[in-house]
Amino acid sequence: MQAQLNKDERIEIRISPHDKRIFQKAQKLSGDKSFSSFIVRVVKKEAEEIVAKNDTVIASERDRNIFFKTVFGDSKPNSKLIEAAEKYKSQADLL
C-alpha cells in the first residue's frame, strides 16, 4: 500500500510544443491516468537512478580512500591482525 502523497509542492516548467506532444503521447501509451502522474513517475524514476549512481560513486570513492590509507598509510597492525598473520604462517609451514 502506497503512502498518501502530500501535494503541497508545485513545480512549473516551460517546454516546447514539440516536447509536450511527445510527453503526452508517451503518457497515453504508458497507461498513466493523468499527465501529471506520468511526469512525476518518469522524473522520479530518473532522479532515483541518478541519486543511486551518485551514492555508489561516493561510496566507491570513500572505500578507495580507506583502502589506500590502510595499505599505504603508516599505521601499525593491531594485535588481532598480528595473531592472524602468525596463525596463517604456522599453517602455511605445515603445507
UniProtKB/TrEMBL annotation:
Pfam families: TacA1. This is Uncharacterized conserved protein, DUF1778 family. Signal peptide: none annotated. It comes from Tangfeifania diversioriginum. GO terms for biological process: regulation of DNA-templated transcription. The lineage of its organism: Bacteria, Pseudomonadati, Bacteroidota, Bacteroidia, Marinilabiliales. The keyword Cytoplasm does not apply. It comes from the Bacteria. PANTHER family: ABC-TYPE TRANSPORT SYSTEM, COPG FAMILY HELIX-TURN-HELIX PROTEIN-RELATED-RELATED. Belongs to the TacA antitoxin family. Keywords: Toxin-antitoxin system. Coiled coil: none annotated.
